[in-house]
Write a structure and sequence with these properties.
The protein contains 9 helices and 13 strands. It is of the alpha/beta class.
Length: 277
């Protein structure tokens, strides 16, 4: 009865199957935690969704920015592309999109001592706030008014948290922090432009990874996240980063999290896109 957390798949179905074979995943007993960005760019995004749907009782999923883009493309809010066209053209498109809409932005497990969000948890949020705000946007994405709400979320990301802001802007901050965050400034203002690995030069400019931000609210749970392929695998006492750039010719990574020590398993990915493409 193993619990494995897996980083960004992004449509790399063959790499996912190789990894599941390597960890000897047994859907009768085991559970997968998936850190988001299930689809887009990889050439078998439809196959990834169909497979995960087939084992949906054994997966815990948090939505990533690419998953939201797929949902937005289904509604005509964003343009499609050749890697997600097969999903939108599938006879099961509505079924798969509705299933995605029902997924979380934050997953928590107090028994295991972990929580998971695609990009992480804002330095402004303690665990109670993170749970509350994740529930808030999950309800809106699952509502009958999801299309209109999602259209507003695809405006420019809100970089600063303000409890007194308009509800739409608060929602945009919440969505942006859970799905797009990498860096923050000393005052906890988020930066959505920098995508590279942390460097001394960036730190000199006042930009630090969100999990290194000064006076970041502490959480009782260790945070699993993906989203940041240029950061790669990273682990400390507070976070576990699992996006190791499978799509970019890197690796797909799984971490067993139900044991005293985290066990890491990886497979090489044959995809070789260049970042930025």
């Amino acid at each position: 009865m193993a619990v494995w957390a897996i980083g960004d798949i992004q449509g790399c179905y063959d790499s996912l199957q190789q990894l599941l074979q390597k960890i000897q995943f047994d859907e009768r007993y085991d559970t997968l935690w998936l850190a988001g960005d299930l689809v887009n760019r990889g050439d078998k995004s439809l196959e990834v969704l169909e497979f995960l749907y087939s084992i949906k009782e054994n997966v815990e999923i948090v939505l990533g920015n690419h998953d939201l883009t797929l949902i937005a493309a289904y509604y005509g809010i964003k343009k499609s592309n050749p890697t997600i066209d097969p999903i939108l053209a599938s006879p099961r498109a509505k079924e798969l999109i509705d299933w995605l809409r029902a997924q979380k932005f934050l997953h928590t497990d107090f028994a295991l001592g972990y929580c998971m969000a695609h990009a992480g948890i804002s330095p402004e949020f303690d665990l109670g706030m993170a749970i509350e705000y994740a529930n808030r946007i999950e309800e809106k994405l699952q509502s009958d008014h999801a299309e209109g709400w999602l259209r507003k979320m695809f405006k420019e990301g809100v970089e600063r948290f303000d409890r007194n802001a308009m509800p739409e802007d608060i929602d945009r901050y919440i969505v942006s922090s859970f799905t797009r965050m990498r860096y923050c400034y000393k005052d906890h203002r988020l930066d959505f432009k920098q995508k590279g690995a942390p460097t001394d030069k960036l730190r000199e400019k006042g930009l630090k990874p969100w999990f290194e931000c000064e006076k970041r609210k502490e959480l009782d749970l260790k945070i699993i996240f993906g989203h940041w392929s240029t950061l790669g695998f990273h682990q400390d006492e507070h976070v576990l980063a699992l996006d190791t750039g499978c799509l970019w010719g890197g690796k797909l990574t799984a971490a067993r999290i139900d044991t005293d020590e985290v066990k890491i398993m990886q497979v090489e990915c044959q995809a070789a896109m260049k970042p930025g493409s």
